[in-house]
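dude i think i finally got it to work??
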Amino acid sequence: MTSATAAGASPAPVAPKSRKSVTGTRKAVAALFLLPALVLLGALVVYPIGYSLIRSFYDQSGDGFAGFDNYQALFTDDGIRTALKNNVIWVVFAPTVATALGLIFAVLTERVRWGTAFKLVVFMPMAISMLAAGIIFRLVYDQDPDKGVANAVWVGVHDTFAESSAFPKAHPGRDSPLEPAGGGAFITRQPVTAGQVVTLPLVGVAPDLMPDGAKKAAPAEPADGKITGTTWQDFTRGKGVGTLNGVDAAELGYAGMKIEAVKDGEVVASATAAGDGTFTLPAAADGARLRLPADNFAEPYNGLNWLGPSLVTPAIIGSYVWMWAGFAMVLIAAGLAGVPRELLEAARVDGANEWQVFRRVTVPLLAPVLAVVAVTLMINVLKVFDLVFIIAPGSSQDDANVLALELYRKGFASDQPGIASAIAVFLLLLVIPVMWFNVRRLRREVRR
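look at this
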C-alpha cells in the first residue's frame, strides 16, 4: 500500500528559486548594479529630450503656449532653410566620400608591405579633436598663398601653366608720355614715326619685386625705318636723385614687357622688351600709337577663396573626410579580413581581372560593413557643429550653416529657446530612422 500510494501520489511542490541570468547573476542584483547608470541615463538623456520636446511648444519667454509655430519656423526662416539644405549636402556627400576612400585605402593597403604604416597615418586624424581640426583647416584654407597650404599648392600649379604678370602695380608717373587706354592698359599720347626713339617710363614696382631677368636700363639707339625705345622703372632711391622721364644709371629695365603698335584699333606690330628694357618695332608701326596691354599689369593669381560663400561647405566637408576616412578604412579593413580568400581566388581562376574581382566579389561581400560605416557617418554628420563653427569665417558662416550650428545660434546668440528646442527635436527625428536602420542591420548580422 505504501509503495502504491507513493507511486500514485503527485510529487511535493518545490519552492521556486530566484531566477538567474545567463551569467549566473540574480536579476535583482543586476538591476541594482544598473541603477546608477539608469539614473544617469535618465538625467542626461531622457530628461533633456523630454524638456526640449515640451519647450519647443512654448514661445520665447517660456510662459505662452506657441503650438506648432516654432516648428513652422523650421521651414520659413531663411537661416534654418539654408542649414537644412546644407545638412542634406552633408548627409549625401560626406559619408559617401569618406566610405569610398576608406574602401579604396583598405583594399590597396592590403597588397603592400607598408600598409600598416599607411593605415596609421590615415587613421591619425581621428586622434585630433574637432576643435583642433577646425583650427588646422582654417589655416589650410587661408586666402594668402604664403599662409594657406591649399592656395599655395593651387597657385603653384596655376603658375606652372599660366605665367603671371611681373608688373601688377606699374603705372605712368608725372608728365609721362603714356595715358590710360581703358581696361588697365596704357598707350602713348602721340603716334610714333619710323626712326624715332620712344621712352615709356613707369613707376610703382618695388625694386625687390622686379623680374629676375631685369638689367640696368639702357637708352635705345635709333634705327632707320624702325621704331626703338626703352621701357623702365623710372625711379632712383634718394631725394632729388635721377632725371624725370630719363634713363638713369641705377634704374632697371622692364624685362619681358609687351609693347603693341596700334593703328585704327588694330595691332599692326608687337615686341617684347629685353632685359635692359629696350625694344624694336618694324616699319609697320610707323604712324601707330604704342600700347602696353593690360596683361602686363594683371594682378598675380591669388588662388581660390576656399572659405567664400560658394566653396565654404565643400571645403569643410573636405576637412571632415580628412578626419573620418581613417575610421571608415579601419572598419572596412576588418571586414575585408573576414572575406573568404578562396572566393577571390576562384574568381581569378575563372578569368576575372582585378577590377571585376573588386566590383563583383569584394564589394558585394563587404556590403554589410559598408552600410554600417555609411549609416554611422550619416548619424555623425547630422550632428556636425565644431568644424563649421571654427572653419567658416563670419562673412560666410550663414552660407555654411547647418542645423546643429543654427540650434546654437538660435538658442544663445538670438535668445530664441523655443525655436532652438524645435530644431533639437527635429534633429532627433532625423537621427532616429537612421539609428533604427543601423540597429536592425546589426541584429540581423548577429542572427547569422
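The first helix runs from residue 2 to 8.
im so relieved honestly
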